Amino acid sequence: MAVSTQGQPRRRVTEQLRQLRFDAGTLCLDLVATVGRRPHAPVERMGDVPRLEAWCRGVGLPLRPGYDPPGALRSLHGLRAAAFDIASSAVDGHVPGRQALALVNRLARTHPPVPQLRLTADGARGDPDQELLTVRELLSVVARDLIDLMSDDARRSRLRACASETCRMIYLDAVRGRPRKWCSMQRCGNQAKAASHRRKSAAHQDAVPAAPPDAD
After folding, report:
1. Host H or E run for residue 81
2. Which domains does the chain have, with CATH numbers?
3. Cα–Cα distance measured from residue 79 to residue 103, given in angstroms and rounded to the nearest whole number
4. pTM for this structure?
5. Staple 133 to which of 13, 29, 137, 196, CB 3.0 to 4.6 Å?
6. End-to-end C-alpha distance for the chain, whole angstroms
7. What is the pLDDT of residues 167-197, one digit of tens each?
8. CB under 8 Å to 123, separation ≥6 — which residues?
9. Rounded distance between C-alpha atoms, residue 113 and residue 204, angstroms
10. Which helix H or strand E contains 120, and what residues bound it?
């Protein structure tokens, strides 16, 4: 197993770990979740254009054809870094950077497209062309979602960081029920339970006295 620069063991990067996640609880946090294992051993989940377009489809915000793919990727990465700085500040209490705040405020100034209806043979339907966004509109939608999140005290108080030290994903906890400790019980929760079971089993084996040797 490789060792990180911080002296901590670095776990193997699996295909599951590279998968995009859409379970952070809100759009801006789904963007933040395109980097895994923050902050010590980050794993990029949206490092190329196919992953960018897969993420846009996953959040239901496809881009209009003809956009600049490398530019869109750079812009989303920049917003992602700002969103992580701002959202995580509600979890650990640090002061977010002024540049992060300025970027989000600037991107939010672009007006998202206004939904429109059109008459079809099947009656009134949404215009599918209105569902396709420019890059600036996409950035604005994400930035506005972050501003809404941070401006709502009730939602802001439900921001959490996964308890797994190798995950630390920022997520929005549910309104009802016990506070979640893990980003996902199917992922980090089950891994933690399995690790705890292994530790208990090993401790039990160490505590069992060895059988005395057979007498001659």
Report:
1. helix 69-92
2. 15-205 (1.10.3300.10)
3. 7
4. 0.81
5. 137
6. 45
7. 999 999 998 777 889 998 777 866 656 555 4
8. none
9. 62
10. strand 117-120
Q: Nearest CA to 26 among 143, 111, 162?
A: 143
Q: What are phi and psi of 124, to 5 degrees?
A: -70, 130
Q: How far is residue 152 CA from its own chain's centroid?
A: 19
CB 83 within 8 A of CB 99: no
What one-character-per-residue DSSP string does the chain give?
--B-TTSSBPPP--HHHHS----SSSHHHHHHTTEESTTTS-EES--SHHHHHHHHHHTT-PBPTT--HHHHHHHHHHHHHHHHHHHHHHHH-PPPPHHHHHHHHHHTTSPPPPP-EEEETTEEEE-GGGG-B-HHHHHHHHHHHHHHHHH-HHHHTTEEE-S-TTT--EEE--SSSSPPSSS-IIIIIHHHHHHHHHHHHHHHHHHSPPPPPPP-
Quote the tokens at residue 4: 């990180």
pLDDT per residue as tens digits for the range 86-106: 999 999 999 999 999 999 999
How is residue 128 annotated by DSSP?
Answer: G
Closest-CA residue to 141 (of 169, 113, 170) = 113
Amino acid at 142: V
**At CA 32, angle to CA 36 and CA 60, rounded to 5?**
115
Q: Give the contacts of 126 (CB within 8 A, at least 6 positions apart).
A: 115, 116, 117, 118
